[in-house]
Amino acid sequence: MKATVWAGRNSVEVRSVPDPKILNDRDAIVRITSTAICGSDLHLYDGYIPTVKRGDVLGHEFMGEVVEVGKGVKNLAAGDRVVVPFPIACGACAACERGLFSLCENSNPNAGIAEKFMGHSPAGLFGYSHMLGGFAGGQAEYARVPFADVGPLKIDDDLTDEQALFLSDILPTGYMGAEMCGIAPGDVVAVWGAGPVGIFAIISAYLLGASKVVAIDRVPYRLELAQKVGATPVNFEETSVLAELQDITAGRGPDHCIDAVGMEARNGTTVVDAYDRVKQAMRLETERPQALREAAMSCRNGGTISIIGVYGGLMDKFPIGAVMNRSLTIKTGQCHVQRYMRPLLERIRNGDIDPTIIVSHHLSLDQAPHGYEIFKHKQERCTKVILKP
């Protein structure tokens, strides 16, 4: 089959790789009908996630048709149309029983590697390094889905792939980012990053009762999309984010701050931005945490910082003094996608959320390298790329 594979830093290729096979009674094989390039994939593309190997199949946002199931899978059959969550979860461990599916204790066969980096291992993830399981991803014609009796969600024909695909990751991630804030009616929320996850966080914040959401980014067309879904745009290359948020909130700061950027944040041409870029390039720190720093300094006293942007390791100069002395609460995590898929599917059906608003490009799988380039470099007004195998 054809698949998008990591070919070195800033390089992906579409190659012929072996077809996946059933390896466990709880496996399923899915023929991919739609897959997508995620902002998290760019961290792999840029070479900042450790234990990625040349030839690894990428992609963790995918859906398609079941073509084969192991004998332990009773809830799916060949021909079922499914969307697949990016965390792989067994459904039976202590974490899964608590609904913490991205922390599954049984799905990462390489847990020992993750423990050396993080202390404890999270769940295995599709297409996201050997530290997180070494599972082949979904930017391919077919994918093996472990624990298929737990993860995949059946999708009826009343929804298009475009409407359902993002239940695999970015829609639940944006929603969880807003939910972790504990938004009360009338609250003001600031969201760093107006990419796909940030847009879904904005929409979710309003669904949960926010009176105003501020979107912080530097790319005009992304800020236009944020404004289209109701956010107040702030371009950090044109103004001081802290000063703007003070003005908007009459000096108090936002009640909640959502970091939807993660480890490759930018801050224009400031000295701090140059410091972070040099240290990250030299692997002296793994993160560029400017968005998170601004969130900590901007948030009102007693407010909440929600982190859904991906971080991989260590950062410098984080203002922990502001967090501690001003009673800020930090909540974070890879999304527990399985917890949110069904409720958000109903939100889509009810018309509360239109996931298609973020889609800018439909490309064939063979065009994946072009998709990565335009997404990374913000070309062609690219907001989200769907690949069709």
Structure description:
The chain has 389 residues and is α/β, with parallel strands linked by helices. 29% of the residues lie in helices and 20% in strands. It has 13 helices and 17 strands. The protein has helices spanning 39-45, 94-97, 111-118, 161-164, 170-179, 196-207, 220-228, 241-248, 271-281, 290-298, 320-325, 337-350, 368-376; strands at 2-6, 12-16, 28-37, 61-69, 81-84, 87-88, 124-125, 142-145, 153-154, 188-192, 212-217, 232-235, 256-259, 304-307, 329-332, 361-364, 385-388. The strands form four sheets. Strands 3, 4, 5, 8, 9, 16 and 17 form a seven-stranded mixed β-sheet that branches. Strand 16, helix 13 and strand 17 form a beta-alpha-beta unit. The longest helix is centred in the last third of the chain and has 14 residues, at 337-350. The termini are close together. The mean pLDDT is 96. This is Glutathione-dependent formaldehyde dehydrogenase. Residues 25-153 form the Alcohol dehydrogenase-like N-terminal domain. One of its GO terms (molecular function) is zinc ion binding. Belongs to the zinc-containing alcohol dehydrogenase family. Keywords: Metal-binding, Oxidoreductase, Zinc.
